[in-house]
């Protein structure tokens, strides 16, 4: 199965945005708008690589609304590592709208009740987004 098929099969009914954009403006707000997210870079918090993987692992592992397990934690961690590895470069910077994987607060970037994800800036104009939305 493909990476996207694995995610969707495990997560069930949910909205997942997975996209790449090329943008040389160095304007993260503009990049957010290209991903269909609220164009306000102040709502993002920088992460280190380990933090980005941990946040993504939690988003794959459990749904945001009811904290229900959606896939085995080990599988979620494996997918998170793979997603980050396949979409980063040596100069990558990582962002999320959550401070940490276990944070119960976030800055919403969609109209959904719950939303969170990871944005990777490759430093060469290449950006990657994986964003999850859930409703209660």
SSE layout and pairings?
Blueprint (H helix, E strand, L loop, with lengths): L2 H9 L3 E8 L5 H7 L10 E3 L1 H13 L11 H14 L6 E4 L17 E8 L4 E9 L2
Antiparallel strand pairs: 1-5, 2-3, 3-4, 4-5
Helix pairs in contact: 3-4
Provide tags for this entry.
single chain; 136 residues; alpha+beta; 5-stranded antiparallel beta sheet; 5 strands; globular
Structure description:
The chain is α+β, with helices and mostly antiparallel strands. The chain is globular and about 40 Å long. A hairpin with a 4-residue loop joins strand 4 and strand 5 (126-134). 32% of the residues lie in helices and 24% in strands. It has a 5-stranded antiparallel sheet, covered by helices on one side. The longest helix is centred in the middle third of the chain and has 14 residues, at 73-86. It has helices at residues 3-11, 28-34, 49-61, 73-86, and strands at residues 15-22, 45-47, 93-96, 114-121, 126-134. It has one domain. The protein contains 4 helices and 5 strands; from the N terminus they run αβαβααβββ. It starts with a helix and ends with a strand. The model has no long low-confidence stretch (mean pLDDT 92).
């Amino acid at each position: 199965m493909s990476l996207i098929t694995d995610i969707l099969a495990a997560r069930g009914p949910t909205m997942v945005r997975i996209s790449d954009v090329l943008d040389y403006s160095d304007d993260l707000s503009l990049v957010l708008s290209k991903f269909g997210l609220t164009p306000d870079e102040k709502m993002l918090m920088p992460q280190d690589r380990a933090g980005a993987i941990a946040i993504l692992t939690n988003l794959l592992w459990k749904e945001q609304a009811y904290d229900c397990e959606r896939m085995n934690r080990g599988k979620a961690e494996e997918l998170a590592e793979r997603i980050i590895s396949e979409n980063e470069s040596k100069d990558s910077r990582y962002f999320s709208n959550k401070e940490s994987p276990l944070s119960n607060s976030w800055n919403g970037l969609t109209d959904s009740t719950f939303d969170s994800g990871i944005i990777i800036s490759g430093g060469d104009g290449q950006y990657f987004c994986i964003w999850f939305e859930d409703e209660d």
